[in-house]
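Give me structure tokens for this 540-residue protein.
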Amino acid sequence: MSDDAHPPRAPPAQAQQPDEDVGAIRAELLRLRQDLEEVQQQFSATQTAQLRDANEQLVLAVMQAEAIAEAATDKLMAMTRITQRDALTDTPNRALMLDRLQTALSMAKRRHTRSAVLFVDIDRFKHINDNFGHLIGDEALKLVALNLGMAVRDSDTVSRHSGDEFLVLLAEISKAGDAAQIALKMLHGIAAIRIDSLPAFRVSASVGIAIYPDDGRTAMQLIDKADSAMYRAKKMGGAMFQFHGAEDVPDSGHVPDFGDTHGLGTQPVPLDATPSPDLHRHALRDANEQLLLSALASRVSEERAMGAHQQHVIHLAMVAHELRSPLAPLSNAAELLSRARGDESRHAWLQEVIKRQVAHMTRIVNDLLDGSRAETGKFHLVCGNVDLVEILGEVAQSCQPAMDEKHQRLRVSLPQGPLNVHGDPVRLEQVFRNLLDNAVKYTRDRGHIALTAAVIDRVISVTVSDNGIGIVAEALPHVFDLFVQNEHAMAMHHGGLGIGLAVVRELVEAHGGTVVAVSAGHDKGSEFIVKLPLAALATP
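Here you go.
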């Protein structure tokens, strides 16, 4: 980046929009869960009349679910666009530009054609900021981006590279002269930029051109060569373009007199007293340090915001995918219900299909709502003295059918007496059910799972262990993060949202406990250790 550039700004208020969008989707999910519960109540008996009465509510629930899935998909597309665009100029960002450039080079290689990369840098941009202010500087960047876009074809790409720099990809050209014509058109367009309220405002740019395959065969080589050519144009006075140096290119072009492009001047405003050279160097060094710190802080803020955008995009993608899964069977069942009048056996079969898919969707919605509570720490606990041994026994029993299906062996080792904990029995059951479900999902057929509990120094330690696929070292620190799934786990078990373990951690910590994951690596099994404080015995 040239010394005329100003550091990138922190992303605008757009970065807050995904939070509002996700909040709206959460509200829709909560309303959907209530509708699903009402539908489930309609299936309390198998009589034909009840099924017919429930049909109308079922269709409405399916339509609402489809609307939520569509809304999530629309938000996903909108947020994907946000994460790929520069917030100020609405041009593709560096990542998207690099992707398009690599695609264009691959195409040019197969077709034996040429491509061009143009590096555009606004001349004396610091003077625009200093003389007119950053708001005018931002307006200049938007106007330059607009003019660059008007100078290229639909198949080409204009991207804000950083600060006052732009990259332009000409995906396919027949000769180097084509790039020269477009560069000259760009320079004319930029030189013609005016702001009505500022008669003295002028802007110009320097352009460097690199040609594929003459000047380089990779994206980074072409960008570097175009950057070098741009600096050569700038040293020659700016407002012109320069090729990197291929032998068959035309003469580099200079914009004809299109108005006073030097209206801003290049000399600093004189001071009343001339400072000493040492004082000037110190002041310049301090200013550079402050500029660097500001740029670094802005970059960190931008990266954090982009990371948050990406997480929301992933979240919404999973929501849309998971909500769509049960919709097809529900829609089919709703349609068949209206046709199967008087057929009791078919009604009974359809009832089971509907109940199974409604239960599936209810579980998805409940998981999503639990995920939002885990993210905000808003779990509601109804606490009292409960026996953890009893809870663990019930959880083991409820998970046994899933283990039997995979021919897995469960070893349970619990103390004889009660283990009293001050907590919410429903949420504690959810904790250990999630851990055992995880063990079942990620342990292969005929594998071994263990559930043990012991008391050490008035702390109850419960361990759920298995000899399953394990957890790789790089994934271990993030295993309890919301919407995070290890690639090995995803390869073995499709579906799921990466919510269960995040909920486990939040609930355990809400009970004043801790949970840790231990694994020696891939295919080495895993252990999840939950520690909860032992409750004082109630006095008679």
